[in-house]
Amino acid sequence: MMSTLRQKEAPALPKNPDATAKTPVWRHSHILDVDDFSPQEIELIFSTTDAMKEVLSRPIKKVPALRGKTIVTLFYEPSTRTRISFELAAKNLSADTVHLSTSASSVTKGESLIDSLSTLQALGANVVVIRHSQSGAPYLAARYLEASIVNAGDGWHAHPTQALLDLYTIREHKGKIKGLKVVIIGDILHSRVAHSNIWSLTTMGAAVTLCAPPTLLPAGLGHEQKHFPKVSLEPDIERAVESADAVMTLRLQRERQQSGLLPSLREYVQLYQLNESRLARAKPDALVLHPGPVNEGIEISPGVAHGPQSVIDQQVANGVAVRMALLYLLVGGKSI
Fold this sequence. Notes:
- The chain is of the alpha/beta class.
- Strands 9-8-7-10-11 form a five-stranded parallel β-sheet, with helices on one face.
- It folds into two domains: 5-155 and 318-331, Rossmann fold; 160-305, Rossmann fold (3-Layer(aba) Sandwich), CATH 3.40.50.1370.
- Residues 1-9 and 14-21 have low confidence and may be disordered.
- It has twelve helices and eleven strands.
- The radius of gyration is 20 Å and the shape is globular.
- The chain is 35% helix and 16% strand.
């Protein structure tokens, strides 16, 4: 389902002598997934993120770009990194921020998602950042509300802002995305992060290799990719990471073993853990990414997670700047 769109000129950014004269067009009223983002729009997000990183490097990390706007975070699932990142992003732009805890709201009394969101809009919310266990919940919200909706993760479907910060982190270190080999290892089937990363990486010209047990791959995903010509499957982790430019491991939830999708965690570690010897098969300057939270000793060894090739901490830091850029573009901020 495509996001609701509206065309408008991208808000002004700090003057850049290297910028082209033509102002890119920002079409999006919502951030629901990255499947309808063009390479030019992603580049606009990146250039805006660059400006936000400059803001974050200042002694006072705050600008009045979204003063008078209200950003609400509505999380139906637990979150640490994503929720705090959005709230810091909104506060750094001088927006008013409200976090609605579903455990302390009328949701516990049976209030529906639409009723909760309608209340927030009536109270003046300009943007609602929503995480929900049901795939498609942000799309439903976008159909009924005037406020901009940002998908902070919905079920197994999508996590667009995570994919964009992953993409930005890779480009920050590599200088480009096009032509890179990026390997994603782990539970592809249940990972909204993997789904959005596949879209964003291939849109920007990367070749993606998926490595996972057959039980943790989406049904019908075969070696011949008609819809994703730049996506390949390689079940052997040693062959998968060969000459990789970046390797992303995904969190393995223990319930996958309990539900019969894995024989044991020990077997998963033996066959799919990213450790030092396996990472050595990638390029010497290959990046290691993880969307978090990390299960050290399961999907990734402690030595790799904290090693010199790991950019996991940079992913977290970049998340604030990327989300600042998205809020700024959505709400139509003024020059910063």
